[in-house]
Amino acid sequence: MITILLADDQPLVRAGLRALLDTEDDMTVIGEAADGAEAVREARRLRPEVVLMDIRMPELDGLQATRALAGTGVRVVVVTTFDLDEYVYEALRSGASGFLVKDAEPGEIRHAVRVAARGDALLSPGVTRRLIEEFTARPAGLDDDRLSPLTGREREVLTRVAQGLTNTEIAEQLFMSPHTVKTHVNRMMVKLAVHDRAQLVVIAYESGLVRPGRPT
Asked: In the record, what terms sit under GO molecular function (predicted)?
């Protein structure tokens, strides 16, 4: 059973999300929060697996609340009306495991919760496009210092994680078992001090290991 906390300053939005998720056999909403500070308190108290976090809230905004929960083991999926460029990159940098807009289909939201709960990352197609555009505008160049903890094989795996491949797809490309890929991914998270695949994707782009449009 995936436990969920809803953080949004609009009661009707919280009610709608609760109705959407509580009907699923594998999900249960265990709490709600009306502002960012309450979201942090309730997440630390209730220890949900996933928090659906609005960005614009009183007290603390969703980005600040997400940063406060980084490293706690709680997965945050940012759900917002404000589908704007400046939030996409910062949401991921703040530790979010996914980013969806509120007009997403119900199935997309449920899928995002399941993806986040298992430790993977989910971005809506529009968000992925703008994230890539963000890095396209940056100067090219490889930051070897950032990647120095990684072995050559781990860099190969990281490249494919950033391309959005699953462990099974990476295993097929690199001729290894999915379990071995998972081991590499977990070791990279430890070495790079991140908590999920979304953060690995950010590092892959920030370091220049992966560049949009560049063959890998």
From this structure: DNA binding
